[in-house]
Design brief:
CATH architecture: Up-down Bundle
CATH topology: Bromodomain-like
CATH superfamily: DsbB-like
Number of strands: 2
Order of helices and strands: HHHHHEEH
Number of helices: 6
Mean pLDDT: 82
Distance between the termini: 14 Å
Number of domains: 1
Helix content: 55-70%
CATH class: Mainly Alpha
Largest sheet: 2 strands, antiparallel
Low-confidence stretches: none
Strand order of the largest sheet: 1-2
Strand content: under 5%
Length: 163
């Protein structure tokens, strides 16, 4: 199998670069199109950053690679759940409890706290059920769901090789 020939360090480096590239792309898109990210969008951005840092740790600290793989898989599944929830909110906005109109939940409080400290990266100003951008008929939340599921599948490759 071709995946067995790829060094694990290259696997972790590719994942880290991919996640940091997604962050850069989201910030560039936000600036160019004047998009207003919602709390769930910003939380997903934070999860991409966490996956990138964990992948970088897996690249730099090879001793704990099973730990990094498990943590990346867990964060990717959390991100897929958040993106799926936002996808549902965008599909059925009349049923969705809109972010920022009720008492803030844990995610909204974390995003608010980060937005006050790092506004260029984490300031949430949009609504979770609105679709401000789409590509090939999919919203940013749809793409994020697919990417998080792809990261979870990507984690399975080195785990399968180790078995």
């Amino acid at each position: 199998m071709i995946f067995s020939r790829i060094p694990l360090r290259a696997w972790f480096a590719t994942l880290a670069l991919g996640c940091f590239g997604l962050l850069a792309f989201s910030l560039a898109l936000q600036g160019m199109l004047r998009l207003s990210p919602c709390p769930l969008c910003v939380f997903q951005r934070l999860l991409y950053l966490v996956v990138g840092v964990l992948a970088l740790a897996g690249f730099l600290l090879p001793v704990a690679r099973p730990l990094w793989l498990g943590a990346i898989g867990a964060v990717a599944l959390l991100g897929a759940g958040v993106a799926a929830y936002q996808t549902w909110m965008q599909r059925f906005p009349e049923l969705a409890p809109e972010c920022s109109f009720t008492d803030p939940n844990l995610i909204e409080r974390l995003v608010d706290w980060l937005g006050m400290r790092f506004p260029s990266l984490f300031l949430a100003t949009g609504f979770c059920s609105s679709v401000e951008w789409s590509f090939l008929g999919l919203s940013m939340a749809n793409w994020s769901l697919l990417i998080f599921l792809g990261i979870a599948a990507y984690v399975a490759l080195p785990l399968r090789r180790a078995a």
